[in-house]
Amino acid sequence: MAPRPHWIFGDQLGPHFLDPRHGGPDAKAPVVMIEARSALRRRRFHRAKAHLVLSAMRHRAAELGDRVTYVRAETYAEGLERAVGLRAPRRPGGAGAEDAGRAERSGADARLTVCHPTSRPALAFVNGLDGVEVLPAKGFLVPRDDFEAWAGHSGGRSLRMEGFYRWVRGRHDLLMDGDEPAGGTWNLDHDNREPPPRGHDTLDVRGPWQPREDSIDEEVRRDLDRWERDGDVSFVGRDGPRRFPVTRREALSALRHFTTHRLPDFGRYEDAMLAADPVMSHSLLSVPLNLGLLDPAECVERAEQAWRAGDAPLNSVEGFVRQIAGWREYVWQLYWHFGEDYRTRNALRHTTPLPDWFLDLDADAVTANCLSTVLAQVRDTGWTHHIPRLMVLGSRALQDGWDPAAVTDWFHRCFVDGYDWVMLPNVVGMSQYADGGLMTTKPYTSGGAYIHRMSDLCGPCAYRPTDRTGDHACPYTTGYWAFMDRHRTLLSANHRTARAVKGLDRLKDLPELLETARRRGASPP
Asked: Is 134's pLDDT higher than 90?
């Protein structure tokens, strides 16, 4: 009997998604790929993101050759009907993620297989189809059932990342010496928080890996240009040149380049920012990881090999392993664990719409140098590292009380590594504290002093990080205290923010500060 076709999504592009040795489809199974125009119409995505995903899909199709049926259709439903004759039933609402077992149990009669999608909407669509067998999720270190067992073992007391990270390290023997962590400690964050070297515009490290565009990239760009001219789609941001891998070969080259040339200097400046060096020593591997071109195990194992060979210090390697085996894995698991209603959480009751200058990535409209610089990085590349995301972009949204659902959507659309599972916990939980502390112990925001200490962004700014009022008042300093005052009752009951709340009583200029914040309103800071 001929093997059943296997459908791969645009974030399942690595060879491990077709590997039968680890729960994949038959080794000779034909492959189906669907490029659905409707996916680009639903949101106003960053142009560079649209180019990246379509380029990666078309490159993968070219690699698979005659094995793949590649369909360009208006919708996934239309693509499936054209590719394998599978009709999507018209049923109100479709099936939910809780019905995943139905599709898995119907495997004996299934006409098509697919690995577990990475979003709830995609899983709901797949589970609403008759004749589809959902195979286990790939591209992560921990099966969902194992995480749920770990979460249950905690007794519901805490699902903090640190405990999960240590559990993953021990389970996968990552940076371990027997039963003990390598170097005698689990967490080397205290070594990875240095400000950037003063007097330097850039770090003295080898630049990041760079791809070479080809005819497929040119074809994608022509298609996007045509669709925009025809009014089919609308994008935000700028496109080109491509900065990230779109093939397995490119992804492996980027991984080797990082671990050889950049990993040694990664740790100490992991949280620092430089205006002229947005990449610093970061890996830029979130993109190929989230496209499925790299497997997280090979990334952390290669980094550990560098440390054991004496080619990278432990603090850099531990910081990198923490990002992938800790944070990335944790976010993936919490996306499913917290359930669908997590996306509507709004514990702080923030409802202010996102301003147009933010939605349009209009960096030139912004006076605050830190925000203007970071917004320009997003506009030009669709990427910044985690500190600008959290402490500049996210902090601005939190201090100004923007609707967390809209902030989540913005991050999803505007970042090349942004997907529903990535951004929902990161924004709702970590960045906007909209879950009230389910994921983190405090809101992550600060005044201008933090940005000044960790960057070179404040020097040329029209505002002063120490000023709370007046024409030169830093929007982050004013915004921080206004946020603390607005949520005084809630934050005074939190042991991690109670001291800061008490500081409000020492601000003799608090009324003037709050008036400064009110006057600025939704105007670009």
From this structure: yes
